[in-house]
């Protein structure tokens, strides 16, 4: 198996084991610990050693991992990579149970900019965090991944909506609650059905559960990731936006560590993966919150050193880009239509929806050249709106150099997205060049 093929298999495994942000973080932590990284607690004093790797998790769904370099951070700066752990999905409401026409359903809330139509007629399961009291009365939590299909959102037959293929509006409140089964209870108020089911599931998994108190659960498609195409040129999966970037950043960080075993890196390298990007990042664990800045300030030691460190630092914000669609090519600017398997995309927006500027674009293109990988540019059509990333937030909060890049993909924010088998690998090679070679100037 080639290095690229092994990389893609690792990406597929990561996507499959990460149905929720909490699962993604847990999977990354396992890989970090296997590589010798040590856990840090934000409530304790840190005693950091040069050359050692560390990780911190906040809220169970956001992660910062870094390898401390041999040089003081005020002299070398920090080589940072950023991504986000969340994806648009359907989240279960606190009082979710619904009885309609003899069917048990769960009410859901749309999280992020979901492309709704693809969610219909899919085999859905549940995953996320469950908070419960154990038999001793202590409040604790556990990850839940049901794995098997337990729900479906059935489409309305075309015979009952002859205009479905022309104009089919979806009302999230009325049309999206998944069906879990027939109502088998005699109770007209099924308000505890979900919590009782979750308690039973957790007990079977070995947890001591007296009462389920709350949860953060999302539905997901059980269809596994796959290589697609006559030559398997594509990767098709849920949550490529943006777990592809989380995996690629982590792989780059650990790959450089392996290469530097006999000669530790002089500069500190860091990966941040935030939750809540899809809803604006305004939370204690989102990019708008203080998580990354608080870690960086603790690394620097004092304000003077912090300012010197940031002046020598750079963040590569990795979030997937819109590949040109062969059936909708007119949705792209004619000179800025990224192609799949043609390299990572440098994302530019004059209105600062992306944080890229000419300096950081030139720097990233030089990393691609060093790694001998192609790169592309994306600028949205002048008559269309533009999405955003954690890049502008990091640039504003930290005053650090930022470039926004990403692997090109189709079907962004669908329940199933498509990217190329080469592009994540290309991006990872460029990130490794950044970590290994950039001198902070």
Automatic annotation (TrEMBL):
Its EC number is 3.4.11.-. Its cofactor is Zn(2+). InterPro entries: Peptidase_M18 (IPR001948), Peptidase_M18_dom2 (IPR023358). Keywords: Aminopeptidase, Hydrolase, Metal-binding, Metalloprotease, Protease, Zinc. The keyword Zinc applies. One of its GO terms (molecular function) is aminopeptidase activity. It holds the Pfam family Peptidase_M18. Belongs to the peptidase M18 family. This is M18 family aminopeptidase. It comes from Oceanisphaera ostreae.
